[in-house]
Predict the structure.
Amino acid sequence: FFNDRTIVEGFRRMGVPDCDAHEYCNTGCVEMTPVGKSGIHVVSPYHNLPAILLRAMKECADAKDFDDFFRGFERVLADEIASRNLFRNRAQMERARNGREPYRASCLINDCLVKGSAVDAGGARYNFVEPNFLGFSNTVDSLVVIAKLVFESGELTLPELSAICEHDFAEN
């Protein structure tokens, strides 16, 4: 369910004036964008949270407690977000530099036509990037399991749990 008041308020918080905040459309699963005024790469980049958690389990195998592990997970996640955002920004700059811009899409963006600039060259009034975090609930559940099995009960070490996950629970 989408809530018009919440969506409009979210746009207002991002500095979108009322005249644009009320004219939006759904552009993906849950992503919203002002109609005819926004860039086209709204659902990007994608972040696979369970994969990031598995990487953190290896990189933070020597964590002393759950708080220490969680700080490590946050660091791995922040590194992933920064890396993917850098990739997305460079891809956008390369499209603009090499003339590989989505001109057909730019023809549907009001400001691109008025400015004579394509989306990636600053033609769109709004160019929001809305990253998508896949596997959020699975990651939260997994963090609870790690807290309980590794750091509270001590049934498994972090490397043991990591190996079990890596081998898809083959021998468990």
Remarks:
- The longest strand covers residues 24-26.
- The radius of gyration is 21 Å.
